[in-house]
Write a structure and sequence with these properties.
heterodimer, A: 22 helices, about 0% strand, globular, B: mainly alpha, flat
Chain lengths: ~500, ~150
Amino acid sequence: MDFLANLTLGFSVALTPFNLLMAAAGVTIGTLIGALPGVGPVSGVALLLPLTFGMNPVSGIIMLAALYAGSMYGGTITSVLINTPGESASVVTCIDGYQMALQGRAGPALGVAAIGSFVAGTVGVVLLMLMSPLLARWALSFGPPETFALMLLGLTTVTGLTGEDALKGYVSMVLGLMLAMAGFDIISGDARFTFGVTEMLDGVEFLPVAIGLFGLGEVLVGAEQVADMRILRARYGLRDVMLTAADWARSRWAIVRGTALGFVIGVLPGAGPTIASFLAYTLEKKVSPHRQEFGRGAIEGVAAPESANNAASSAAFVPMLTLGIPGSATTAVMLGGLMMWGLRPGPLLFEKNPDFVWGLIASLYLANVMLLVLNIAFIPMFVRALRIPYAVLMPLIIIFCVTGAYSLNNKVWDVGVMLVFGVLGYAMKKLGYSPAALTLALVLGPLAERALRQSLIISDAGVAIFFMRPISAVLTLLALAAVAVPAARALRQAVRGRAPAEAA
Amino acid sequence: MRRADQIAGAGLLLLGLGFAVAGLRSYTYWSPTGPGSGFLPFWLGLTMMLLAGSLLVRSTRGGGLDVAWLPTGRGRRKLLAVLGVTVALVAVLKVTGMAVGTVLFLVAILRLVEGLRWSSTLAIAVGTAAANYLIFARWLRVPFPEGVLGF
């Protein structure tokens, strides 16, 4: 039994006291970050990444993965009690979750979300565990053309799916690739786009960029909002979150459907928990026998999306670990972290660093158990944290951004880079560009360039090489389709003389 | 937003042009062994020109009202204040050191921008600076900028 041996190895790593502590810290901070509006999982991972530098990579990824899972649970609390999503994957939970809370049923809404999240998270990890080694084995046969085609597909699908405006998404992606060109060229040794600045020889480093875009940038967007939020008075003690038999009967299949759909969506490169939660809600609204209650406090409307976002967050690790292609913005930042720790994501990770991969998988099981307990028994504690005014939280996050960026190389230069990208992130967010696409492109840029140039060096037929090998041909065609479909739609609209709706 | 798109489109068009030219002239487009260091920059430049051009055309032909995207009134004042204090912190970091810089930054934001009471302001500022020092400088051994005071 291969799996059993691997899983034993994983638990032997995950159950060491320090790693258990890191998982516990991750789920607690993650639930908090998920619950606080204005900081989502991407910001959380980017902000905590500097803390992991001194650690063993396994402990680092355990904390970050636990944080990611925790944020999916925590987002619900805010959606249900304040009608403001704590993070984007809980947007759709506001609809029926807040209605339930208004009817005095905040407890069951939070309870079903926690149980659904647990089921989905756990099933997600089981599937992750079964699927990843097979995918990794298949990906081992990839040469440079397949690698490049895969990255192209990852870049184009992330870009097409994350932004509200496809054109601006692609602009963001190409901008990220351009930033990735700066610094020493690995193949020729040329120093590119350094403008004589010594610090630029290493290129534009990923961490200050991510902290700027997702930390400072988000905070600046929050800073200009003046309104304060009101927390609904509700009962969410241990006894209140228990489900009645009727609630359970109604949510059971919603959880199953949400889990299945969430996992499938999460595995696709580019489509993460947010999209999964929206699709699960839509699906549930179609198939539920109580569909007329949707929008007025249907418990299925909470169970399905909350299960889906957790299944998707587990599934997002599949492409990241096996292929080195992140399935969501958060895993893109984690991928950057992996490279900073000196690991090479991709199929070889399973052979070269089994303790890392299986330790991560085992701690995801543990994290889900911890989260179930935390989100059933300790909800009042997190609600109290929500009372911290944003006015206090905001400067604390900025201090964390400054310290985190500084700690990379102990240079104020990196803090300056963080600041520049903070302002850029603010503008990108307000104008409908995609910081996620830029980050992904910056992370994948150097790897994609190397694969592209290696492919062309071994090719006798120029770029035709990407179409002459079966796997790379399929991947390249899919990538081209991901660009061509929205482009054709935009063109048709332009020809008809109708302006596409401006993204607000 | 329409004006912002036009400005961004024009700026990105120039950036794309710069990349394409640099790819051909400053770096090697094609070396004897294959594509050189200028190969991808050149193509990225061309792609950006295409995208930026589309953005420019779309925003110009789009018509309609120009929706404001920058905040006004109190929101703008607050945004600028927060940004200004943050820039100031980064600028003086080497002089004040991280610990003093953190306290000054938090006092400026909490007391001057947000109008918290002095007692809460000082408690949060000193507490954060201490926690930050313990986590990063002590536990993670990041050599913090020390400033003229020696800490």
